[in-house]
Design brief:
The chain is an all-alpha fold. It has 2 domains: 1-82, no CATH class; 88-238, Serine Threonine Protein Phosphatase 5, Tetratricopeptide repeat (Alpha Horseshoe), CATH 1.25.40. The chain is 70% helix and 0% strand. The protein has 15 helices and no strands. The protein has helices at 12-21, 25-32, 46-56, 60-68, 72-81, 89-98, 102-112, 118-127, 131-147, 153-157, 160-165, 172-188, 190-204, 209-222, 225-237. Helix 3 (46-56) packs across helix 5 (72-81), helix 9 (131-147) runs parallel beside helix 12 (172-188) and helix 13 (190-204) packs antiparallel against helix 14 (209-222). The N and C termini lie far apart (51 Å). 42% of the residues are buried.
C-alpha cells in the first residue's frame, strides 16, 4: 500500500501502517539486546522516528490513539507529537504506568517537561518504586536542565537533594538517569556547576556502590576541560 509522504493529516491507523511497512526483524532483535522488548516494537530506529514526528506535527488526539496501540514506536511518536498544554497530570501518571522501555521513558519525558506541572510530576515519579516510573523523574530533570531555558537556577538547586536521595537505587535504568540528571544540572550554568560538582564528589566518596559510581562518573564529566570550556562560553553568551 502506497501511503504517500508523511503528513499532519495522517491519523493513528495510517501512522501505524507506515511503522508496519518499515518494520525489520533484524532491528527488533538488536533492540532486545538493549532492554527493549522485541514483541513490543516494529524496530524503527530513532533516526527515522524523529524526522517522521516532525512531518506529522503535533496532534493530541492522534497521540492519545498512538499511545493506546502499546507499541514502542507508536508511543515514541505519541510523546514527540503530543501537545503538552493538553496533557494533564493524570494522563502523565497513566502513561508513566505503562512505561516498559528506557527509550520511551526518555522520549516522553521531554513532553512532560513542557507541561505546567512538570516540577510536581518529578516529585511524584521519584516517589514511585517502579523502575521506569522513577527513571522518568530523572530523565525529566535532565531534559529540564537543557530545555527550560528561563527556569531559575534555584529550581535545579532544589532538585539536587532528590538526586542525592535516590543515588543509592541500584537498578540500572534508575541509576543511569540519576547520573544523567546530575551531570546536566552541573553543565547548565556556572552557578549550578559548583553545587552539582560538590554533590558528585560527596557521592563519589560514598560507601554505597551505586552512589559511588554515579558520583565518580559525574565528577569525571564536570571536571573535564571541554565541559568547563563550554560552560564558560555559555555563561559569556548569557
Amino acid at each position: 500500500m502506497d501511503l504517500g509522504a508523511p503528513s499532519p493529516s495522517w491519523d493513528a491507523d495510517t501512522v501505524v501502517a507506515w511503522l508496519k511497512a518499515h518494520a525489520t526483524t533484524e532491528n527488533r532483535a538488536g533492540m532486545e539486546r538493549f532492554g527493549i522488548k522485541a514483541d513490543r516494537t516494529f524496530g524503527i530506529p530513532l533516526a527515522q522516528i524523529r524526522p517522521l514526528a516532525r512531518k506529522l506535527k503535533r496532534n493530541h488526539e492522534r497521540a492519545l490513539a498512538l499511545w493506546e496501540t502499546g507499541t514502542r514506536d507508536a508511543r515514541l511518536l505519541a510523546g514527540f507529537t503530543g501537545e503538552p498544554g493538553r496533557m494533564t497530570p493524570q494522563m502523565a501518571m497513566r502513561w508513566a504506568g505503562d512505561f516498559d522501555s528506557w527509550d520511551v521513558v526518555d522520549g516522553v519525558s521531554d513532553l512532560f517537561v513542557d507541561m505546567a506541572e512538570w516540577r510536581s510530576l518529578i516529585d511524584a515519579f521519584a516517589a514511585d518504586e517502579r523502575e521506569f516510573v522513577r527513571r522518568t523523574a530523572f530523565a525529566m530533570t535532565a531534559w529540564a536542565a537543557v530545555h527550560r531555558k528561563t527556569e531559575p537556577d534555584e529550581t535545579f538547586l532544589g532538585l539536587l537533594p532528590l538526586i542525592e536521595a535516590h543515588a543509592s537505587d541500584p537498578r540500572n535504568f534508575v541509576k543511569k538517569a540519576v547520573n544523567w540528571a546530575l551531570r546536566q544540572i552541573g553543565k547548565r550554568s556556572e552557578a549550578l556547576h559548583g553545587p552539582a560538582l560538590a554533590l558528585s564528589q560527596k557521592l563519589a566518596a560514598s560507601p554505597d556502590r551505586t552512589a559511588r559510581w554515579i558520583g565518580k562518573d559525574a565528577v569525571r564529566e564536570l571536571t573535564d576541560a571541554k565541559t568547563l570550556e563550554r560552560l564558560k562560553a555559555r555563561t559569556a553568551r548569557a
